[in-house]
Amino acid sequence: MKVSPSVTVETINQSSTKEPPKRLTSLDVFRGVTMIFMASEIMRIPEVARSFPGSAFARFVADMLDHKEWVGCAPWDLIQPSFMFMVGVSLPYSLASRQAKGQSFATMFGHSLYRSLMLIFLGIFLRSQSAPQTYFTFEDVLTQIGLGYMFLFLLGLTKPRVQWLAAAIILVGYWAAFALYPLPAPGFDTATVGVAREWPHHLTGFAAHWDKNTNLAHVADQWFLNLFPRQTPFVYNGGGYLTLNFIPSLATMIFGLLAGGLLRSDRTGMEKFRTLIVYGVAGLIIGTALHVLGICPLVKRIWTPTWAIYSTGWVLLLLAGFYYVIDLKGYRRWAFPFLVVGMNSIAMYVIVHVATEYIINSLKIHFGQGVFELFGEPFAPIIVGAVALLIMWLVLYWMYRRKIFLRI
Description:
Elements: E1 8-11, H1 25-39, H2 45-49, H3 56-64, H4 79-100, H5 105-127, H6 141-156, H7 160-180, H8 216-224, H9 246-264, H10 269-292, H11 305-328, H12 336-342, H13 345-367, H14 380-401, E2 404-407
Antiparallel strand pairs: 1-2
Helix pairs in contact: 1-4, 1-11, 1-12, 1-13, 4-6, 4-9, 5-6, 6-9, 7-9, 9-11, 10-11, 13-14
């Protein structure tokens, strides 16, 4: 297998006399569940569900497995904050392992810089596959993590109160920057930035400071993204996503950093579990209040401060659930398929983005379209997508059995 220079193939020798660093099994499983949930996009479930417009259940499924148009939260919206939060949770374990090996600050700093750059490179590389030239945008999960990782590393060397303060400054400062940025002039034609006048999700009043493609970070992208070579000038992102999302999403990673510090602490397992639950519920309450009171809308696509807090609440509750079931109660056997993916998440991410089309086309060529229409033509994408996911999992299982893991 030819491996990109942006990753390292790590083979763990089972006969080594050194005890491997302890891993938080629940975190690996959580990562695996999230990755498989993300990869299930290739099954095109929302598209299939929308082919049954008369079914209330089908409409519900389609809504749950797709991003909200603007305001609100669906389970699908929690994929990216889960990944970003887990980066933060992992960092205290990584730092402890490196410090135990006697690595200097310079060595650790160099690795964090390398990791930041490689995440950005890999994100752009994967996004550019079907483009006529390198597609320079920075809104996907890998590049967003890469843009914030250096800051997260430095904060990982500080005390929790400094981390709390940093998260607060980021969220309040980002909120203030949007709130103080002038609204478009009356009569501004939003169609020029890809948003129809009749779009039903327009925000009004004070909330309009966070409207689609008329906000501060959108203007920043019109300048920043046009510094890179492009076939045509960048005017707007069709989904409203922004490069500067990495600033408030850094707060999401900081919250993960704090959770990782808690899980590595000397508190009892039940104390850790209860603390995760309390902070998770608090995040949901605070986030909901900020939205309902009109202080800041809940918008994932531009990662509003409200979204950073609210989504962290859900992710904390999910982590607490996995931690309780797997690490406290020891129910692990059911989680093995997810563990295989969670311990090799970079490999899974790359396979999904590089090999999906090839695998699905090959399945149709060799088995024919008819075999996947066993339950009816509308369900064929789900069946062939599920088989493709199984093939990807088998590749990761082969790597797992041979202790081969891709690291950045």
